[in-house]
Amino acid sequence: MGTRFNLFANETAVKFAKRFANAGLVIHQSALPRAVQELVALRASQINGCGWCVDIHVKEAAAAGESALRIGLVAAWRESTVFTEAERAALALAEEGTRLADAHEGVSDATWARVREHYDDDQVAALVSLVALVNAANRLAVIVHQRGGSYEPGMFEAALG
């Protein structure tokens, strides 16, 4: 099945996308490490089955200098040795914050405590906002069947010009 609706060709959708991108810019410019941002966005997108967003975050992570090994192991981060304790805490938050319906408590106290061990208040604000934002982006792309494979780093920003 092809894309149902082109979000980049509709005036209302483009207006929304520009505001959405501005929210993302706040996170991008935060003190939360860029590697953590891309790993978290990638993991949430994998869970949500968003091919478009997986494509974006794999390529953006690589463009930011992330190794192919680490990018490839994000889906199995618990069974990998290549992530720091801080990254593991952020990935756990991403998973639990994405799978809210799968657990009665949402994000566990244990995960929250690990996040607080590694990130200051501004980084926590950025991390929580990122999990919410990437989940919203996943839903936008999945609803309209935006397919992965054609993204080039920086393309989203150029489209919103």
From TrEMBL:
Residues in Carboxymuconolactone decarboxylase-like domain copies: 19-96
Extract the coiled-coil ranges from the record.
none
Q: Which GO terms describe its molecular function?
A: peroxiredoxin activity
Query: Does the record bear Repressor in its keywords?
Result: no
Top-level lineage group: Bacteria
> What keywords does the record list, in alphabetical order?
Oxidoreductase, Peroxidase
Does the UniProt entry include the keyword ATP-binding?
no
The family database entries (NCBIfam families) matched by this protein are listed as:
ahpD_dom
The protein in question is named Alkylhydroperoxidase
Record the organism: Streptomyces caatingaensis
